[in-house]
């Protein structure tokens, strides 16, 4: 574990690590769960969560039905934009968000639609550029942190990946943001936080990265990558190891506390390594 942390810290210190942020991070500051979205869609569609067999469907299928019924997901997006907000004070006070900013990742990819990462950077006075579509790619400043909204942004309806069709389209991984991610991921260490392996889209993404490297004669040169999971069994660890990911877990049963502890220790190792660099003052 310590060797893994040192290796990851070296990549972060050298600005050769990409952070990939999932919904679990926004939930630590009070964002509703996917179940809250499912419940709202079912209410809007007149479905009964207690008795309707469609209650067990995930949000992509229900959002697809919503679009079929109403011709657009505009009203649903507007509801999400209103309800999926937390106070800026909550983000500002979040130790996890403070650590994300202070670690200085040059690239942060996120599947979250909200502005919590942007708010965290603004709260600490750190520059960033948001990338949610092709236009943003043409004007992105390479000298500051890029926050890539991989599944879209509330400020751009067309960018949102929310219905089943949206997810299927993204699974081809041939959009401009996908091309950017593949290029970034091939040369850098990846760190995934806030994800569950029940997320099929992320599992496929990880598989595609592994697939690209497995076809390469330079597979042995692939940078190591990591995923933080509060808990992981042997099956999860084995599958992820096959895909080139090292699982980092926690000793505590509280997922938020475990992630905070992990990021704190990573931050300490980044600072310690910088202090140990020849010519640097401790």
* 3D shape: globular
What is the string of SSEs from the N terminus onward? Answer: HEHHHHHHEHEHEHHEHEHEH
For the biggest β-sheet, the strand order reads 3-4-2-1-5-6-7
Distance between the termini: 25 Å
Alpha plus pi helix count: 14
Helix content: 40-55%
State the total count of DSSP E strands: 7
Mean pLDDT: 87
Task: Please state the structural category.
Answer: alpha/beta
Q: What proportion of the residues form beta strands (DSSP E)?
A: 5-15%
Q: What is the CATH level 1 assignment of the largest domain?
A: Alpha Beta
What is the gist of this entry?
With about 280 residues, the protein is of the alpha/beta class.
């Amino acid at each position: 574990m310590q060797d893994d942390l040192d290796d990851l810290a070296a990549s972060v210190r050298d600005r050769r690590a990409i952070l990939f942020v999932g919904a679990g991070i926004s939930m630590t500051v009070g964002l509703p769960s996917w179940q809250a979205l499912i419940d709202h869609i079912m209410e809007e569609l007149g479905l009964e969560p207690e008795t309707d067999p469609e209650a067990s469907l995930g949000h992509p299928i229900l959002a697809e039905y919503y679009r079929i019924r109403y011709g657009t997901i505009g009203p649903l997006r507007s509801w999400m934009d209103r309800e999926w907000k937390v106070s800026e004070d909550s983000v500002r006070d979040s130790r996890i968000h403070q650590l994300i900013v202070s670690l200085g990742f040059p690239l942060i990819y996120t599947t979250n639609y909200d502005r919590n990462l942007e708010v965290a950077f603004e709260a600490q006075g750190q520059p960033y550029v948001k990338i949610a579509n092709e236009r943003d790619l043409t004007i992105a400043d390479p000298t500051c942190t890029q926050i890539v909204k991989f599944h879209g942004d509330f400020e751009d309806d067309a960018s949102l990946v929310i219905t089943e069709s949206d997810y299927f389209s993204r699974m081809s991984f041939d959009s401009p943001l996908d091309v950017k991610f593949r290029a970034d991921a091939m040369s850098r260490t990846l760190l995934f936080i806030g994800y569950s392996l029940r997320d099929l889209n992320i599992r496929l993404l990880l598989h595609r990265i592994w697939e690209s490297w497995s076809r390469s004669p330079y597979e042995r040169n692939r940078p190591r990558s990591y995923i933080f999971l509060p808990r992981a069994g042997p099956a999860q660890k084995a599958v992820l190891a096959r895909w080139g990911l090292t699982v980092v877990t926690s000793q505590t049963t509280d997922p938020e506390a475990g992630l905070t502890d992990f990021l704190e220790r990573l931050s300490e190792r980044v600072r310690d390594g910088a202090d140990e660099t020849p010519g640097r003052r401790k």
